[in-house]
Amino acid sequence: MSSLNLHKIGVLLKNQRLSLGYSIRDLSSLSGVAAGTISQIETGKTSPNLVSVHALCETLGFPISALFVEENSDQIKLVRKNERSSFVRNTSNGREILETLITKGDSQMWGGHVVMPAETDSGAFYYHDGEELVYMLSGVLVFELEGHAPYTLQPGDTLYYPNEIGHRWENRTGEAAEFLIISTSDFKKFEESAEGEIDVKDPGAV
């Protein structure tokens, strides 16, 4: 373990101990780990063995896996409303189908807010990796999954499907429809697979 990780482990265990109101002596008595060892672990002065760590975590009710998660603030992403980027998947009947990304960065997952104008469709079937979950916000849409009967979705309905199944959707009504789509696809790979079919726009461009 690196010194940084040793420090992190010590801080996490100490904070959990203090939150439970235990002294080092209390924790030693309950866990069977020597008080001197606990003190050295909490100050990052020693590399604890897994037996000691397991005993301490079990006594403190703390998940041992949390001690070994790498610090990476890049894994946490906040997207403000005015920071969302948008893209036009295609045009249907002369109208743009606008999708606004609600995630950003090099995530292995992305989400979008899709607005479908009246009497428009998403074009040909799409095929890519991952899985998708659709949640209808307003209006009525018909989702087509290749080889399956069409699914008519109304507000509050959800639909899940593997992305290797060809998928497309249509708004056959005279009212606009909106839905959220969450995909475990890598967006950059999706963008590459749909090259020429979507037009990515910078935040504030629409």
Helical percent range? 10-25%
Largest sheet: 7 strands, antiparallel
Q: What is the residue-averaged pLDDT? A: 80
| Strand order of the biggest β-sheet | 8-5-10-3-2-1-11
What is the CATH class of the largest domain? Mainly Beta
**What CATH architecture of the largest domain do you see?**
Sandwich
Number of domains: 2
Global geometry: elongated
Please, could you describe this protein's structure?
This protein has 206 residues and is of the alpha+beta class. It folds into two domains: 3-71, 434 Repressor (Amino-terminal Domain); 81-201, Jelly Rolls. The protein is built from five helices and eleven strands. It has a seven-stranded antiparallel beta sheet with strand order 8-5-10-3-2-1-11, with no helix packed on it. Strands 4-9-6-7 form a four-stranded antiparallel beta sheet, with no helix packed on it. The chain is elongated, with a radius of gyration of 25 Å. It starts with a helix and ends in a 5-residue tail after the last strand.
